[in-house]
Design brief:
Helix 1 packs across helix 10 and helix 8 crosses helix 11. Strand 8 and strand 9 form a beta hairpin. Strands 1-7-6-5-4-2-3 form a seven-stranded mixed beta sheet, sandwiched between helices. A four-stranded antiparallel beta sheet has the order 8-9-11-10. It is built from 13 helices and eleven strands.
Length: 348
């Protein structure tokens, strides 16, 4: 475990808080305001979200990314429904069964090579409608970017949205790193969410410089009915919501979301360039956001992790994941590449 404060490439969650967002928290920390979201900060940022996601959108703040995903799905389903997702999806792999526990829905994983769902892969689960012995397909859930660092184009999103809507289903998007996808695409959020047919979005900022707080954004009118009660039951209603709202207001309106994600993506491209030519290093996925996946000699992993903490993605194939953050520096990457090169050369 990395407990020494050493910089590494394990997760953009490991980075600190951007100074502008610390300032936002400090500025909001004045006087008394009404709790649970009836404060001026929350009312104001709700209008800001409409600027980014459309006038028909509606945002609700929650405390965690898992909470955002589980509640997004809960708002769309009943216990006899099923949710189709990639076999690498966060809701399937990294949320300790929370989606199944709290929604009581069946998750149907689809094997993918790059984390992306495609129509032809999803269609095999689109059967049994109206048949009482089968869980009823209700939601297609995708991550943008995917857990493999790949990015859906608006056309790819729309293809899945159209498929879902043709079958009376909904499309959910896990947007924990949505800013990185927007920078990669060179597009506004609305272009590949609302305009592409996404129904409900989990939108986060903690991987891109925020301290805490995530959001559930309903992009289609009529879907948010009763959500406030679901949020309260799920213990995701923050009493001092102004501190979440104040961060999102600065994050969005100061263009911080863009600047931080642009830097993280740029650092990932630089990391790719620095390591891709090292013998024994095989890049396994396109570098489209702020993640680099690679296979490296198994015998050097532990030694490399002692100096730069990162996660092994697949122990069987020695595939690792390196994430860059808004505060990753060129010096971090230069030192990492030099160390990796020195370790790989004898091993190779």
């Amino acid at each position: 475990m990395n407990t020494t404060g050493k910089r590494g490439f394990a997760s953009d969650n490991n980075a600190g808080i951007h100074p502008l967002l610390l300032d936002a928290l400090s500025n909001a920390n004045s006087g008394h305001v009404i709790a649970y979201g009836d404060d001026a900060y929350t009312i104001q940022v709700q209008q800001t979200f409409k600027k980014f996601f459309g006038s028909g959108s509606e945002v609700f703040f929650v405390l965690t990314g898992t909470g955002a995903n589980v509640l997004s799905i809960s708002a769309l389903t009943r216990s006899f429904h099923s949710v189709i997702c990639a076999d690498t999806a966060h809701i399937y792999v990294d949320e300790c069964g929370a989606p199944e526990k709290f929604t009581q829905c069946k998750l149907l994983p689809v094997a993918t090579k790059d984390g992306k769902l495609r129509k032809e892969d999803v269609k095999k689960h689109l059967h049994g409608f109206g048949f009482e012995h089968h869980a009823q397909p209700r939601v297609i859930s995708i991550s943008q970017p995917t857990e493999m660092g790949t990015v859906y184009t608006p056309q790819e999103v729309k293809s899945l949205a159209d498929l879902a809507h043709e079958h009376g289903m909904a499309l959910h998007m896990d947007g924990a790193r949505l800013a990185n996808a927007a920078v990669s695409l060179g597009m506004a959020f609305k272009s590949f969410t609302t305009d592409a047919g996404v129904d409900v979005l989990s939108f986060g900022g903690t991987k891109n410089g925020m301290l805490f707080g995530e959001s559930v954004v309903f992009l289609k009118p009529g879907l948010s009915e009763s959500f406030r009660y679901l949020r309260k039951q799920a213990m995701q209603l923050a009493s001092k919501m102004r501190y979440v709202s104040a961060q999102f207001e600065v994050y969005l309106n100061s263009n911080l979301w863009y600047n931080n994600a642009l830097h993280a993506n740029t650092m990932a491209k630089l990391l790719f360039e620095r390591v891709s030519g090292i013998p024994g290093v095989q890049i396994t996925q396109p570098v489209e956001a702020n993640a680099v996946f690679a296979r490296i000699p198994a015998q050097i992993i532990a030694t490399l992790q002692e100096q730069f903490f990162f996660y092994v993605w697949d122990e069987a194939t020695s595939e690792v994941r390196w994430m860059t953050s808004f505060d990753t520096t060129r010096e971090d990457i230069d030192r990492f590449a030099a160390t990796l090169n020195a370790l790989v050369q004898p091993a190779h």
